[in-house]
Amino acid sequence: MTNVAIVYYSATGNIHKLAVAAAEAAEKAGAEVRLRRVAEITDEPLAPNYTEWSDANREHVSASRDVPVAAIDDLDWADAVVWGTPGRYGLLAGPLKHFIDQTFELHARRGLMNKAMSAFTSTGTPHGGQESTLLSLSNVFYHWGAVIVPPGVTDDILLAPSNGNPYGVSATSGLQAIPGHLAQNVTDDNLAAVGYQTVRTLKVAEALRKGLAQG
Fold first, then answer.
1. Cα atoms in the Cβ-side hemisphere of radius 13 Å centred on 131
2. How many CB atoms lie within 10 A of CB 97?
3. For residue 84, which phi and psi values (nearest 5 degrees)?
4. DSSP letter at 43?
5. Are 9 and 38 in contact (CB under 8 A)?
6. C-alpha distance from residue 24 to each of 41, 125, 189, 200 (Å)
7. How crowded is the C-beta side of 118, counted as CA atoms within 13 Å?
8. Which of 10, 30, 68, 156 would disulfide-bridge 15, Cβ 3.0–4.6 Å?
9. Is the dihedral of CA 47, 96, 8, 34 positive or negative?
10. Helix (H, G, I), strand (E, B) or coil at 210
11. Nearest by Cα to 35 from 21, 56, 48
12. Contact 25, 79 (CB under 8 A)
């Protein structure tokens, strides 16, 4: 059985929805799955004057407390890791970067080498840095000697207008507010596409494990 870790940071719930869909698809495909959230690194609101965003952040943090917090052991255990992050100025979010910075010891003993890695994202606008956010994660994977598994354009679901780009499934959350909340615009196509991306990644992980075992 292939071990798949879905490791994500979600501020207001969009990335969480995609991560849950990824985990469900991996389980359906027969993988052993760990769904893990990356914790906030500060209790201070990131946008104190943007009350809709701050309220949505607090609501999501409270609602997702039952999801186990990611640990370095989850990466060591996994054959494949699928990462989720919102875009922050074209980069991965700070809490996820903080978690990645803790992988030095595992990386130093080559514990991340040859693992299959893939990533997905969500931004407020279609051109809000989705591609560069995913590429910023790829830079990390290069250092680890991991095997990057992009969705590419390998299935019709990836041609849906809402699915972003061939580097990884990308949702557009939207900036418009509804009373007390931000818009949650993850589409059914996004959920289907991240499921496809995850299964593609675990299949590559299976092939790598078998091939490496044969020497």
1. 6
2. 18
3. -130, 135
4. S
5. yes
6. 27, 27, 15, 14
7. 32
8. 10
9. negative
10. helix
11. 21
12. no
End-to-end CA distance of the chain: 19
d(CA 121, CA 128): 11
**The tokens of 37 are what?**
């959230």
Sign, CA torsion 88/201/7/140: negative
* Look-up of token digits 């044969």: 214
Q: How far is 5 from 100, CA to CA, in rounded Å?
A: 14
Nearest 10 degrees: Cα torsion 88, 115, 3, 68: -30
For 75-111, how does the pLDDT look when each residue is reduced to its tens digit (9 = 90+)? 999 999 999 999 999 999 999 999 999 999 999 999 9
Work out the number of other CB atoms within 10 angstroms of the CB of residue 3.
20
What is the rounded CA–CA span in Å between residue 200 and residue 209?
Answer: 14
Region class of 95: left (phi > 0), else alpha (psi between -120 and 50), else beta: alpha
Q: What integer is the mean pLDDT of 61-70? A: 86
Structure tokens at 79: 């054959």
Give the ranges where 2-120 is alpha helix by DSSP (H).
14-28, 51-63, 72-77, 94-100, 104-108
Tokens of 152: 């590419």
Q: How far is the C-alpha of 134 from the C-alpha of 124, rounded, in Å?
A: 15
Least confident of 21-35, 111-125, 165-179: 165-179
Please choose, from the candidates 70, 68, 89, 88, the residue with its C-alpha nearest in 3D space to the C-alpha of residue 78: 70
Residue 180 has what pLDDT? 47
- Token code pair at residue 56: 């949505």
